[in-house]
Amino acid sequence: MHAILDDIQPVNFHAGEQARRYLDTLTKPPGSLGALETLAIQLSAITGELKPSVIPPAVIVFAADHGVAAEGVSAFPQAVTAQMVANFAQGGAAVNVFARQIGARVEVVDVGVASDITAAGVVNAKVSRGTANMAIEDAMQPEQAAEAINAGVVAVERAIKAGAKCLIVGEMGIANTTASSAMLAVLTGEPVASLVGAGTGIDPQQLTLKVAVIERAIAARNADSQAPLEVLTKLGGLEIAAMTGAYLAAAAHRLPAIVDGFIATVAALTACRMCPAVRGYLIFGHRSQEPGHDVALRALDAKPLLDMGMRLGEGSGAALAYPLLQAATAMMGEMATFTDAGVSDKAAL
Ligand SMILES: O=C(O)c1ccc[n+]([C@@H]2O[C@H](COP(=O)([O-])O)[C@@H](O)[C@H]2O)c1
Ligand SMILES: Cc1cc2nc[nH]c2cc1C
Fold first, then answer.
1. Which of 184, 274, 309, 331 is deepest in the core (most CB within 10 A)?
2. Which of 316, 313, 318, 319 is nearest to 175 (CA)?
């Protein structure tokens, strides 16, 4: 993990500025393509290229279980994690559908599902059969967190070897909004009640219980808010650790990564706290309905591309946002300049 941190360089500011200047030579009033122009500048800064390509994208879904599910904090039973892994492997989940629309392969990685996974095509990187219950003991041991982070790094490096030019990372893990909320409360210092939400759809009574479980876990684990790896280890999850590793690896390899919803953004925040230069490589796909997502986005000074009222996870919101990256790069690659097209530039007054 130290090796990957050493490999991360800030994005190329000069390449971004070159893109900014080039955008103003294209046949449109300066700035008229708004956030698409900001995106094009960021993609140039990430890749160091004036006309980068984001084709093909790769989708990686990390799956794991959470000991804290035993506290009754989710609307669904833990078995759903493994059942959804089988669904991903068969191509039937929402992220599979959206991945097909954008021409992305979906790789599913088991980093810690509680049961045996028999579905064909699932990458076995199981660190343990779920985390421990953070209300009772540390969710992970430091070696386990490191192994899960490394599984994320390895998965990204595999995607890059297969040619990926853009990364979409998703997750599946019953009770992972509880783990993510606990991490976020410690990392930002925000009150638990201000960021906890319904996750898969718990009722108000269960929500009260979820807040209490998280507050109890935070007090008992006593993680140092300035030590992101400790926060991840004591309160996080194996798939959250793998996603953290994936964002670190994307940055190390200068690959744009589209961040999905709440859980993904907490992992992204963890990666950025470990290495602030990661932030420049991250593009935020959508705003999740989970209330903590806004807290996490604010902590990263991030403005998501889409606001669809979604709260699914799996990388679904990031996959939906991908065509905007394609549009940004096509704009840079294919639009005529004022000179090319013989269009009069802005009148000099
Ligand atoms: O990505 C999000 O913003 C998001 C918000 C709420 C729920 N989820 C998904 O729902 C599961 C976690 O919800 P829960 O209620 O079991 O903590 C997990 O599999 C996530 O992928 C995802
Ligand atoms: C069915 C189902 C699908 C999911 N995908 C991501 N999290 C999920 C949670 C549930 C419950």
1. 184
2. 313
Domains and CATH numbers, the chain: 2-51+332-348 (1.10.1610.10), 57-324 (3.40.50.10210)
Tens digit of each residue's pLDDT (9 = 90 or more) over 143-200:
999 999 999 999 999 999 999 999 999 999 999 999 999 999 999 999 999 999 999 9
Residue listed under structure tokens 């294209």: 26
Contact 51, 332 (CB under 8 A): yes
Q: What is the reported pTM?
A: 0.98
Residue 347: DSSP 8-state: P
Tell me how crowded residue 56 is: count the other CB atoms within 10 A of its CB.
Answer: 15
**Sheet with 257-259, side-by-side order of all strands:** 123-124, 105-112, 57-64, 166-172, 257-259, 282-284
* Catalytic site includes residue 215: no
Band of residue 346 on the pLDDT scale cut at 50, 70, 90: confident
Specify the length of the chain in residues.
349
329's enclosing H/E stretch is helix 316-334
For ligand 1, pick from 176, 184, 260, 314 the residue to mutate: most ligand atoms within 8 Å of CB: 176
Tokens (6 digits) for 334: 């294919």
Q: What ipTM does the predicted assembly reach?
A: 0.99
Return the number of other C-beta atoms located less than 10 Å from residue 336's C-beta.
13
Structure confidence by residue, pLDDT tens digits, 29-61: 999 999 999 999 999 999 999 999 999 999 999
Tell me the HSE value of 68 on the side-chain side, using a 13 A CA sphere.
34
Report the alpha-carbon distance of residue 288 to residue 108 in Å, rounded. 22
